[in-house]
């Protein structure tokens, strides 16, 4: 009798759900397991720091695995004060923005070799680069871009149409609410404009 009850209990025991691995602070781990495939480039030249915000990003020249030039990227470094998690957030939010139709500069994983930036004279930047060996996050540099200013008239000079259409504005507000972005304000909209020529409609990034 006891054996029958034991067998029934064993059959009714639910299967345990395999535990998902604990989050890893390594950006490499997160990129491989949680992010959709992205292009990968290698940093070849530290051009100039962009002293904006706490992450101290920089303009970096890059190349692909074969050594062919892939252009300039604004790179955020894992060795900066905000750490790798801030870079993961940039990747996730950037791809969410692309999915809902917003225009986002090309995202890339930027690899820093051990020898990268050794000749940089600034000790603060040297410390950041030393702590950023491996994968970092880059956004394609938009040559000629300028900051969108909400205080300026929001119309094209000739056509009279709005630079920021209601659908785009709504999508930006929705995304900020979803990811609880508190950085975008009226004074600092965190939006860029590029324009191919004076007659062309500006592109909002």
Mean pLDDT: 76
- Please give the share of residues in helix: 25-40%
Q: Termini separation (Å)?
A: 73 Å
Low-confidence stretches: 2-26, 29-35
Q: Per DSSP, what share of the residues sits in E-state strands of 2 or more residues?
A: 15-25%
Q: For the largest sheet, list the strands in their spatial order.
A: 1-2-3-5-4
What global shape is seen? globular
Tally the helices. Answer: 5
Summing up helix and strand content along with how strands pair, one would put the structural category as: alpha+beta
**What gyration radius follows from the Cα positions, in whole Å?**
23 Å
Count the beta strands.
Answer: 8
Report on the architecture of this protein:
- The protein is α+β, with helices and mostly antiparallel strands and 205 residues long.
- The chain contains 5 helices and 8 strands; from the N terminus they run ααβββαβαββαββ.
- The strands form 2 sheets. The protein has a 5-stranded mixed β-barrel with strand order 1-2-3-5-4. A 3-stranded antiparallel sheet has the order 6-7-8, with no helix packed on it.
Features:
5 helices; 28% helix; disordered N terminus; three-stranded antiparallel sheet; globular; alpha+beta; 205 residues; five-stranded mixed beta barrel
What's the quick description here?
With 205 residues, this protein is an alpha+beta fold. It has helices at residues 2-12, 27-34, 83-99, 123-130, 166-178, and strands at 39-49, 58-63, 69-76, 107-112, 134-140, 146-147, 192-194, 203-204. The radius of gyration is 23 Å and the shape is globular.
């Amino acid at each position: 009798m006891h054996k029958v009850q034991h067998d029934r209990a064993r059959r009714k025991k639910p299967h345990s759900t395999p535990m998902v691995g604990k989050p890893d602070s390594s950006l490499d781990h997160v990129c491989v397991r949680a992010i959709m495939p992205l292009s990968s480039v290698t940093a070849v030249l530290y051009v100039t720091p962009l002293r904006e915000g706490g992450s101290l990003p920089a303009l970096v020249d890059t190349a692909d695995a074969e050594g062919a030039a892939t252009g300039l990227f604004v790179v955020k470094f894992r060795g900066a004060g905000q750490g790798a998690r801030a870079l993961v957030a940039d990747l996730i939010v950037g791809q969410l923005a692309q999915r809902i139709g917003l225009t986002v500069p090309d995202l890339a994983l930027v690899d820093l070799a051990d020898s990268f930036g050794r000749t940089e004279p600034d000790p603060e930047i040297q410390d950041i680069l030393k702590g950023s060996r491996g994968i970092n996050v880059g956004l394609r540099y938009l040559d000629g871009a300028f900051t969108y200013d909400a205080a300026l008239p929001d119309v094209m000079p000739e056509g009279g149409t709005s630079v920021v259409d209601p659908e785009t504005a709504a999508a930006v507000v929705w995304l900020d609410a979803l990811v609880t972005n508190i950085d975008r304000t009226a004074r600092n909209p965190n939006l860029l404009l590029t324009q191919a020529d004076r007659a062309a409609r500006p592109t909002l990034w």
